[in-house]
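Progress note, sequence design subtask.
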């Protein structure tokens, strides 16, 4: 049967056949950071930020948390790596009054806490820090479960890892790398968008971070000084 015949005559012209996707909701971010994520950080999706120590990955995640809490969002950090420093977070402009910090004793407990926080609702951004956790022990079914939990909660779930582990269950994957040269108090690093389900599959944003003297250099707390951006399709 022709689907058009199912529409009552009085509604002809007022009803359109087909499915119209819901407008994508994104967390508010600085323009330079939005470009790293291919246009923004989507709510209800899993994104991963990967990179080695001192690659700028912590700075990028702190920028996400600062942007979210400044905009009035409630955020959470599940600190499986036991590396989160509240004093450095405050210096990075993160509103600690809008941040839930969880320190689970194991990777398994970290995953459970993440699911519970997502199920509770009310969070705009949830960060799961898996740095230093034995990634081989994490089961494959972990990622689809977290992806479903993030979708139901409407929160942006960001995984902080030393390498890419989520695969196709991540909407976005950003790899942070550090350049070799450091000039005085300025460190240059760049983020490469290596996986993007929403657009160009490869983009890089080169960032120059000016070191905040009040912050701990080992933790990599920096501010964006300038940046250059380029995209290319595979």
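Output:
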């Amino acid at each position: 049967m022709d689907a058009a015949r199912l529409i009552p005559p009085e509604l002809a012209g007022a009803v359109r056949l087909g499915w119209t996707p819901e407008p994508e909701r994104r967390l508010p971010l600085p323009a330079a950071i939005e470009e790293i994520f291919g246009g923004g950080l989507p709510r209800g999706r899993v994104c991963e930020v990967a990179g080695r120590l001192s690659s700028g990955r912590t700075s990028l995640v702190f920028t996400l948390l600062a942007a979210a809490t400044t905009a009035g969002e409630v955020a959470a950090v599940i600190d499986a790596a036991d590396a989160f420093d509240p004093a450095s977070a405050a210096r990075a402009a993160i509103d600690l009054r809008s941040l839930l910090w969880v320190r689970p004793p194991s990777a398994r407990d970290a995953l459970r806490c993440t699911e519970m926080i997502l199920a509770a609702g009310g969070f705009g951004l949830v960060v799961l820090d898996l740095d230093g956790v034995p990634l081989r022990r994490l089961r494959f079914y972990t990622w689809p479960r977290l992806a479903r939990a993030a979708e139901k909660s409407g929160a942006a779930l960001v995984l902080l890892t030393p390498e890419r582990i989520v695969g196709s269950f991540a909407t976005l994957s950003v790899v942070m790398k550090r350049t070799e040269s450091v000039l005085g108090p300025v460190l240059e690093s760049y983020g490469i968008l290596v996986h993007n389900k929403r657009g160009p599959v490869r983009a890089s944003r080169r960032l120059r971070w000016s070191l905040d003297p009040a912050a701990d250099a080992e933790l990599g707390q920096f501010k964006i000084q300038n940046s250059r951006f380029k995209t290319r399709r595979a």
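Residues 57-70 form the longest helix (14 residues). Work on this subtask will continue into the next period as scheduled.
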